[in-house]
Design a protein that fits this description.
By secondary structure, the chain is α/β, with parallel strands linked by helices. It contains nine helices and 13 strands. The relative contact order is 0.16.
């Protein structure tokens, strides 16, 4: 069996630790590391990258760009890269690491040397919106609103420390300047031509996520029913290993309620369509673990595709 060596740059962070934990049980994978004192030493980092097969970047955007430049300076362009930052999600030459995006995306990731790992919020929103646009049920220029709530682990070290210390609020909206850095990838890969309105929030729980998209059915072509939307999503993700489409009557959402923590510690993504056809209203909802399919789990899914690991 071929052994692939992987270096996680930023292995001490939340996403890096999650990736390392998941890769620990994968046959044919060996993790390389760098001494703590040399983590910001470009010479030491460049040397290590010249010795590994793949690098995962769990870094701030600026540091990720610097590390990619180091890799590019190596013979042959250096190792293959999965970037978990937002630095390259809409960059030319980078494959978007959402294998379920369409029928060709998994193959594109498998052959790419540079893959950008999706954001947690866009993962849920794109999964809901893209199939409806591809099917013609949702026009690309439709004024879409995306509302979402995440556990505080997705907010980085300062937010995590604030919640751990008990100084953070129980719930808050943020990004109210409407310039959240996830919007660009959400719009591009959902297939929207009109910039969506995105309202994120954070709650006093460590991990877990709900992403919702409300729709007025009468404003859509053909005035579809709730069942039409659900049918399109179910057909799109049929056979998917990680994404499932569940009816609103599923026991986990019985009574019109849905727990944001329901998929914690998994790499799954659940989609549902809640609706009231008499009122012409529907709400598309995605549930995932922001640390799973929203971060570390997605990275490992991409790593396996790139290295041909089953």
């Amino acid at each position: 069996m071929t052994t692939h060596t992987i270096f996680i740059d930023g292995e001490a962070g939340t996403t890096g630790l999650g990736i390392a934990t998941r890769l620990a049980g994968v046959a044919g994978v060996k993790l390389a590391s760098i001494a703590a004192a040399a983590r910001k030493d470009p010479v030491a980092k460049r040397k290590l990258m010249g010795e590994v097969d793949l690098v995962v970047l769990c870094l701030p955007d600026a540091a990720a760009k610097e590390t990619v430049a180091l890799a590019d300076s190596l013979p042959g362009g250096g190792p293959r890269i999965v970037d978990a930052s937002t630095a390259h999600r809409v960059a030319e030459g980078w494959a978007y690491g959402f294998p379920e995006l369409n029928a060709q995306q998994a193959a594109a990731i498998a052959k790419s040397r540079r893959v950008s790992n999706p954001g947690c919020y866009p993962t849920g929103a794109i999964a809901l919106i893209r199939p409806l646009i591809d099917a013609g049920l949702l026009p690309p220029d439709h004024p879409v609103t995306v509302n979402a709530v995440s556990g505080y682990s997705g907010g980085g070290k300062p937010m995590i420390e604030a919640y751990a210390a008990g100084t953070a609020p129980l719930f808050e909206l943020y990004g109210l300047g409407l310039e959240h850095k996830h919007v660009a990838e959400l719009q591009k890969f959902a297939g929207l031509t009109r910039r969506p309105l995105f309202v994120p929030s954070v709650g006093n729980f460590r991990q877990g996520m709900l992403v919702s998209v409300p729709l007025h059915l009468a404003t859509l072509p053909g005035k579809p029913k709730t069942a039409d939307l659900e049918q399109v999503l179910a057909a799109f993700y049929k056979g998917s290993a990680l994404i499932s489409v569940l009816p609103a009557s599923d026991p986990s959402s019985k009574g019109g309620k849905l727990d944001a923590l329901g998929l914690n510690d998994t790499d799954r993504l659940e989609l549902r369509v809640f609706g009231n056809d008499a009122r012409g209203h529907a709400v598309l909802v995605a549930r995932l673990d922001n640390l799973g399919k929203g971060a570390s789990g997605a990275a490992v899914q991409n790593i396996k595709l790139m290295l041909g690991i089953v």
